[in-house]
């Protein structure tokens, strides 16, 4: 029995897409960040860090997209969500760790500068540095996709599910994502996947329009 705690528009979309791609049944537990539902006593029992996503597996909980997506891919191998080759599988996890450690936190600086500085000028500097770093990450992802159809290996993997979050955030925040030709062509390939489109629509993501 799987239950996914997620908030539309948040990074939890990566795990949401991964689960949908796996084809296994799961229960959706929307936990709306905008309404503070991630800070309620009930949710803090699920994830004491107060973050989405969280995946409940028969009463036990996994947090962090990288761990959730790796679990889904390994638990449901028939869905082929990790490359077969051991090095490529590790590279898939490598990409997700980088998304989580570097790419996501740079965007957080642009949206939540008050977590990093107190003064108005300090916050402005945090936003500017975050925007620069986030754009550099988008360009790096564009480079990773040069001459390739998928982030790692020769087919869709959970790393692709995760990479779509940042293209969507870039578009939502009016970065010039269309200039990233490889990333944009890959995004168009992603939109052809029924599971991806289903989640984009259900989360009312900007990429579904
Ligand atoms: N490294 C974590 C990041 C989780 C995270 O920061 N989630 C955000 C949404 S994008 C969140 O729940 N933020 C709520 C908050 O910080 O108050 C992961 O990949 O799962």
Mind sketching the topology for me?
Blueprint: E1 2-6, H1 13-22, E2 27-30, H2 41-46, E3 54-57, E4 60-63, H3 65-75, H4 86-111, H5 120-144, H6 158-172, H7 181-191, H8 194-202
Parallel strand pairs: 1-2
Antiparallel strand pairs: 1-3, 3-4
Helix pairs in contact: 1-3, 1-6, 1-8, 4-5, 4-6, 5-7
Glutathione is lined by residues 10-11, 33, 38, 50-53, 64-65, 100, 104.
Brief characterization of the structure:
Helix 1 runs antiparallel to helix 6 and helix 4 runs parallel beside helix 6. The longest helix is centred in the middle third of the chain and has 26 residues, at 86-111.
Can you tell me about this structure?
- It is a single chain.
- Strands 2-1-3-4 form a 4-stranded mixed sheet, with helices on one face.
- The model has no long low-confidence stretch (mean pLDDT 98).
- Helix 1 packs antiparallel against helix 6 and helix 4 runs antiparallel to helix 5 (120-144).
- By secondary structure, the protein is of the alpha+beta class.
- The chain has helices spanning 13-22, 41-46, 65-75, 86-111, 120-144, 158-172, 181-191, 194-202, and strands spanning 2-6, 27-30, 54-57, 60-63.
- It has 2 domains: 2-79, Glutaredoxin (3-Layer(aba) Sandwich); 86-204, Glutathione S-transferase Yfyf (Class Pi), Chain A, domain 2 (Up-down Bundle), CATH 1.20.1050.
- It contains 8 helices and 4 strands; from the N terminus they run βαβαββαααααα.
- The structure holds glutathione.
- Glutathione is lined by residues 10-11, 33, 38, 50-53, 64-65, 100, 104.
